[in-house]
Design brief:
By secondary structure, the chain is an alpha+beta fold. It is 29% helix and 30% strand. It folds into two domains: 3-210, 3-Layer(aba) Sandwich (CV3147-like fold); 225-344, CV3147-like.
């Protein structure tokens, strides 16, 4: 694949495949499908491979920032487009393409609407090939560059919660600022951030990650509804179904713009920080972020994000080793991974 005019069918596959690769985060399927319709209402987005750009061309990342479970979120099409337009004003070099921050039901197609509206293509290289909780984890290790200054534009909310602006600061400070703004906006903002050149993307992003999501979604949708879908996904990703059973305990707390919680299914325990962080069976670790841990409705085979889990629901859990995923360089940064431990009270490193 070099250049491809995307279709609504591609978007549907990307939403379902992205939801699975989201590992419990990355937004809701319904939101992703709705965003897909909006993306194609104003034009046709285009997907390009990294070889279509020059080494020194700049690409900017678009994302959604916030807690998926919040009930007051609002980010409309114009707000998403405005973040890209504002980045053009704030950044001193031409932007040649857009990239999403991660794979997820709502996030794999980040940038498709903006692409259709602005004419900028979407790069087949998400910052990360799986969903992750913090902005720094989606920054392709820019956090390791001394004196790096992050530029982030944002917009979201409605009525008295409506907000729009930009921040220029260290990566940690700018990311935490946008996260704080998302809380004030009702739980979510659209963001455009951290332009980088193609050489840097090749070394640090999940090149080919959008195509992987589309292909995974195509496989998932080709299998009739039911538990066979879960087996097909696990086989395709070279993972395994760990356990299937009814949820006996579920706990979710919104903390600082994140969903943090715990799931118990018989003798299986899951922790999540937006995305699933650990899975243990009989007290033995069966998967640890950035391994892909994902939940499905055990009866229909539909993927379930962490915020959808409810007590009594019959759930199947899969785990896929990180080696089988397309991942950013940040997923091997122990300093970033270490930040998970005090949140979930579990060892990650």
């Amino acid at each position: 694949m070099t250049r491809k005019i995307l279709s609504l069918d591609d978007a549907k596959k990307a939403v379902y495949g992205g939801c699975i690769l989201g590992g419990g985060g990355g937004g809701w399927i319904e939101d992703g499908l709705e965003k897909s319709k909006l993306a194609f209402s104003s034009g046709k987005p285009e997907l390009i491979s990294i070889d279509e750009l020059y080494a020194e061309d700049y690409v900017t990342c678009v994302s959604l920032v916030g807690a998926p479970s919040s009930k007051e979120t609002h980010v409309d099409s114009q707000q998403l487009i405005n973040t890209v337009k504002r980045m053009h004003k704030e950044f001193d070099k031409p932007i040649k393409a857009l990239m999403t921050n991660e794979n997820g039901a709502s996030t794999t197609i980040n940038g498709w609407l903006q692409s259709a509206a602005t004419g900028l293509p979407v790069l087949d290289a998400p910052s990360n090939g799986r969903a992750h909780p913090t902005g720094s984890m989606g920054s392709m290790n820019l956090s390791e560059i001394d004196d790096y200054i992050s530029i982030q534009t944002f917009a979201g909310g409605k009525a008295h919660r409506k907000v729009e602006g930009f921040v220029s600061a260290s990566l940690d400070l700018s990311s935490s600022t946008v996260r704080s703004v998302s809380v004030q906006a009702g739980g979510m903002v659209g963001a455009c951030r951290n332009p980088v050149n193609v050489n840097y993307i090749k070394e640090n992003a999940a090149v080919g990650g959008i195509t992987q999501a589309i292909e995974l979604g195509e496989l998932f949708l080709s299998v009739p509804k039911g538990p066979e879908r879960i087996e097909a996904v696990a086989s395709y990703l070279k993972g395994r179904v760990i356990h299937s059973g009814a949820v006996s305990h579920f706990e979710l707390n919104e903390t600082g713009g994140f969903d943090v919680g715990f799931v118990q299914i018989d003798d299986l325990e899951l922790t999540f920080w937006n995305e699933y962080m650990t899975v243990e069976m009989y007290g033995q670790r069966k998967g640890t972020f950035p391994d892909l841990i994902m939940t499905f409705n055990a009866e229909t085979g539909m993927p379930l994000v962490s915020a959808e889990i409810r007590k009594g629901l019959k759930v199947a859990v899969i785990s896929v080793p990180k080696e089988n995923l397309r991942l950013s360089s940040t997923m091997f940064n122990e300093k970033l991974l270490k930040t998970i431990e005090p949140i979930i009270q579990k060892k990650i490193i």
